[in-house]
Amino acid sequence: MAGSGFGMQALVKKLKLLQVGDAAVRRNPLFYADAQRELERLEAAGFNERRQWTRDRLSKLLFPASRSGYGLIVRGGGDIASWPLLTKAEVRAAPGAFAMGSRLFTIKANTGGTSGEPLEIVRSLRSIVFEQVCIDRMMQKVGVDARSARCAVLRTESIKDPNDFKPPYWVHAGGGNRLVLSSTHLNAATVEHYARAIDEFAPECLLGYPTSLEALCFLLRRAGRRVNIPAVLCSSEVLHPRVWQVARETLGCRILDYYGQAERVAFAYATAPGEYKFLPGYAHVEFEAAGREGAYQLYEIIGTPLWNRSMAMIRYRTGDMIRVPAAWGERELEELALGVRTFAGVLGRDSDILITPNGVKVTGISHFQRDVANIERIQVIQETAAKVVILVLEAEGYSNWDRERLLHNAREKLPRNMHIEIRSVTALERTARGKTPFVIHRPQVKELLNNTRAHGNIA
Question: What is the architecture, at CATH level 2, of domain 150-259?
Fold first, then answer.
């Protein structure tokens, strides 16, 4: 069966090079229309119907999950409460134990590793299609047809050498329907080039990370420039209210921000600051109490995906927190989990960026460890504007090849005027509270970041 999985993986890579890729994989006609109807029906449904649908779907998932290696070990049954909370470390330690069903139509993927610990997961084709249905639905909410829209992309894609500051800073893709812009080269000296490229391309939508959107909008604002982008979709980082405001003013756009993870265990979205909703039908969402802040209670998001029948990710701890009124009881939390109530947003990791000596904010730091197999975890420390240290907890088999691959990945993101040092360690740095953050900024760097934020804040 493993051979079939690898064959599917190779097929997907080939299809991605062709325009038929989306239709054959992410928008597979065997599953897409049914998933779309199911999602639309649930969004229109009330609390009781959403609750019953979720319970029915969950019960159908728990039976095959109970027969996985992991299910047999923990003796999980048909009641979700019989399963313990699941950590990323447990999945990383024995990923094969979580296998469910056939591997015939499955695709392997790696998490981005925002905590410095990437995870290999397996997704069923049906779950990949449903994920695309959800994204397409989000774009529809801001008036964009995902199948045909002209989209600009401003995330972490490596367009060219980060030391090459000669235009262009973009490439066209998707048969001419995508303008993929480099966030690495975006600064005060290049922003006019970006503005002209966006004006010429005339996108209907921008897909971006919040930090990249913030940089674009504040640089345009300082240059006295405006561009027209009707809709913006953000993900992967915290989108601050100040960025919602300046993006609307600078781009004249509608904004949708959504939250998810590579593990696909929860999904939430908002079209206005502080009004996030979990998407019904995506996952079975629970909340684990994680401390009190005055009149508010912190909860960790716990999720069980309802569409991936290939991996038993039951009651998975995301590590992501939300803050809700402490007076809320069981009923209010269930309404929240089913998308009936709103919440202010996920308390995320918007600090996981680096800043270059030229003042460019670099995102996608979690990509440093991508495709480096023999590493337990990394931690990125920016000592100065020009020096970055990557601490490595080695796994068995770690070699100079792994070190060079890690350095290569980092060098693809950072310009040559930033020195990169890789150190193998036996322990990572901890904060006073005992946490081991993925990115640490030394005082000099914090001051530099604070100065750039202060200059960007709206008066």
Answer: 3-Layer(aba) Sandwich (3.40)
